[in-house]
TrEMBL record:
GO terms for biological process: glycogen biosynthetic process. This is Glycogen synthase. Its EC number is 2.4.1.21. Residues 295-442 form the Glycosyl transferase family domain.
């Protein structure tokens, strides 16, 4: 059986550009899928960091005018990742965050920028390069949502298509007046096309026209079919339930491995946890927490937003401090939340510390040095931070939503007795229940043999891409077995 050729298209890919979990996923998927006979080449924008990482590349196509300026399509490989890079300086030659300008607001031309990415992906599917013919094009998140729509309105033979929702809250809505500028026909603007609540919906278009829809956990796939978490798209998702499924994310076990991690102070394993204590000492020193290796240390590495429940954590801080614990926060997000985090750290020196921003090395050290990892999200499509925490024996304390519910086994007496407890879950998602979960975790921590049993069970849990890659391979094969696209 010959390999299946998949063109993935996304707005970021680790290690070249990353703002969150999407970048990690795009960087981690291709290797495990290759073992399943799936050959992935990923199309990404030519941000400065991507072009620098790619080096020269090979110019395989030139556009005289791609949405307002000349562009090149480059091909090359970086650290085992096969890439197409869309080098369009008028769209992507901007330093800093890929989506947000220096004033903290979205780039006003984001719809045009990511329409160009989706248009090139669709054109590759229609034979732009005679030597490259993908069997499947797999779009990721709203930035690539127009790709299935372009193929639909182009007509004629096309590859099969998949779109993955990494977070339904981000939908890529833009004014209807941009229809022509986006290269969409007049007749596409209707409820069965790209129209969405009086505008053009990038993600809505992808969900409308893709052959298959996936999201990043089974529980989230169920949640988004209802009005509470469907974000205005639940009706469409219910109508397309027969093509919607949830496939859990995995993590790159080479990058996130406490046995070999070069970014932490001391390595450790399930057999020998001593290094984790040394990492706690280093984390305390790095962030200015009191040097107390026996004190329970809760960590959180997250976007500092309402979705992630940071307001609930700050409301529950007295319960955490009453347990004698420390708290380390690493992340960035809403300005108001960032200010609140800085304020509580200043109010509780030595007990609460924060680093506002993102630092990859510090994120690794936080997982290694924390006793427990907090993830009190109001909703969570999958979540990667709790998967890293499991790998590093930072016992996750999580809300029972989405991928958090699917990946963490609550430390009930029965689960502890069966040696399958890997964390603490709480529900409903409010400050009272979060406080109760923190108290449960602190009580378990004081029972050292039980706590270390939970840590070791967490570290043994399979959070790799092995099972997800098989699921994606099955999905692609099923699509191709159904015959040509409609």
């Amino acid at each position: 059986m010959s390999d299946i050729q998949v063109l993935a298209v996304a707005s970021e890919i680790y290690p070249l550009v990353k703002t969150g979990g999407l970048g990690d996923v795009m960087g981690a998927m291709p290797g495990p899928l290759a073992a399943e006979g799936i050959r992935i080449r990923t199309l990404v924008p030519g941000y400065p960091s991507v072009l620098e990482g790619l080096g020269e590349g090979e110019a395989v196509y030139r556009f005289d005018n791609l949405f307002g300026g000349p562009a090149r399509l480059l091909a090359g490989s970086v650290l085992g990742l096969d890439l197409f890079v869309l080098d369009a300086p008028h769209l992507f030659a901007r330093d800093g965050n890929p989506y947000v300008g220096p004033e903290g607001h979205d780039w006003p031309d984001n719809p045009i920028r990511f329409a160009a990415l989706a248009r090139v992906a669709a054109s590759l599917g229609k034979g732009l390069l005679p030597a490259y013919s993908p069997d499947v094009i797999h779009a990721h998140d709203w930035q690539t949502g127009l790709m299935p729509a372009y193929l639909h309105y182009d007509g004629g033979p096309r590859p099969r298509t998949v779109i993955t929702i990494h977070n339904l809250a981000f939908q890529g809505q833009c004014p209807a007046e941009l229809l022509g500028a986006l290269g969409l026909p007049d007749w596409s603007y209707n409820v069965e096309g790209v129209e969405h609540y009086g505008g053009i919906g990038f993600l809505k278009a992808g969900l409308q026209f893709a052959d298959r829809i996936t999201t990043v956990s089974p529980t989230y796939a169920d949640e988004i079919r209802g009005p509470e978490l469907g974000m205005g798209l639940d009706g469409l998702l219910r109508n397309r339930s027969d093509v919607l499924s949830g496939i859990l994310n995995g993590i790159d076990e080479d990058v996130w491995n406490p046995v070999t991690d070069p970014l932490i102070a001391a390595r450790y394993s399930t057999e020998e946890l001593t290094g984790k204590r040394l990492d706690k000492v280093e984390l305390q020193a790095r962030l200015g927490l009191s040097p107390e290796p026996d004190t329970m240390l809760f960590g959180i590495v997250s976007r500092l937003t309402w979705q992630k429940g940071l307001d609930l954590l700050l409301e529950t801080l007295p319960a955490l401090l009453e347990e004698g614990a420390q708290l380390a926060i690493v992340g960035e997000g809403d300005a108001g939340t960032e200010d609140a985090v800085r304020r509580v750290a200043a109010e509780h020196p030595g007990r609460v510390a924060c680093f506002v921003g993102y630092d990859e090395g510090l994120a690794h050290l936080l997982q290694a040095g924390s006793d427990a990892l907090l993830a009190p999200s109001r909703f969570e499509p999958c979540g990667l931070t709790q998967l890293y925490a499991l790998r590093y024996g930072a016992v996750p304390v999580v809300s029972r939503v989405g991928g958090l519910a699917d990946t963490v086994d609550d430390a009930t007496p029965e689960a502890i007795a069966a040696n399958r407890a890997t964390g603490v879950q709480f529900s409903p998602v409010n400050a009272t229940e979060l406080g109760n979960a923190i108290r449960r975790a602190a009580a378990l921590y004081r029972d050292r043999p039980t706590w270390q049993g939970i840590q070791r069970a967490a570290m043994r849990k399979d959070v790799s891409w092995r099972t997800p890659s098989r699921r994606y391979a099955e999905l692609y094969r099923q699509l191709l077995a159904e015959g040509p696209a409609n």
